[in-house]
Description:
Helix content: 40-55%
Shape: elongated
Largest sheet: 2 strands, antiparallel
Radius of gyration: 27 Å
Low-confidence stretches: none
Number of helices: 8
Distance between the termini: 81 Å
Strand content: under 5%
Order of helices and strands: HEEHHHHHHH
Amino acid sequence: xxxxxxxxxxxxxxxxxxxxxxxxxxxxxxxxxxxxxxxxxxxxxxxxxxxxxxxxxxxxxxxxxxxxxxxxxxxxxxxxxxxxxxxxxxxxxxxxxxxxxxxxxxxxxxxxxxxxxxxxxxxxxxxxxxxxxxxxxxxxxxxxxxxxxxxxxxxxxxxxxxxxxxxxxxxxxx
Length: 174
């Protein structure tokens, strides 16, 4: 018996395995479980992935690439219609500024909406927009000791010692 060839006939299962499952504009890993694979999409976390699997009627611990086409289509439709199935507090786009609708964005749409919101805040010079422009923390975090983007602040003892040694060596030669 060789370690390379399993005896349970899993080669047939590997042929049925779809390594990539495409939902929207995202390729999901077919070798992971349904719940785990859905969390790779922007806008879907662990809790949302569990709800999507439940709404689609799919076992969340099943391997995503081994599902039937019907089950994959059910998962796709559950992801696309997520805002209708979940309470409004679970969606990621509540009371949109322009339309007033509550939706759940996923993938590139979420990133585009987020950039648009930040750009709007910057254009109207709101407090959050100005913080975004300056590259500072936006949500009230501490900035005295964290979030420093410049070099080290304080005394660099090693650099002072090196300068002193160089000055001492330079003074001895003259």
